[in-house]
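Chapter summary example.
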Amino acid sequence: MKNNMFSLALAGALAVFSTSTFAEPRTVTLEVSNMSCSLCPITVKHAITRVPGVLDARVDFRSQSATVRYESTKTDADAIAAATGNAGYPSRAVKVSR
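The structure predicted for these 98 residues follows.
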């Protein structure tokens, strides 16, 4: 009986752990405003990567966009867009995918 209870508790803990810890990362593409020189993407990337849950970011001056991969259990597209806005570069999500 104790082994069955332990096994059941362990299975439940693993199920919770696996869904919250190993959630599939998402990707958002942002349209970024106010980037006026080739150094602006550095500031935008710095603002984005400081958001907890962001895994990586690519910021492109030519297309005035940023592509960000993040953990959906820790942040979302709105929080990432807010971070760029707070840095002086308002943005909006144009595509969110898994």
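To summarize the output: The CA atoms of residues 52 and 75 lie 7 Å apart.
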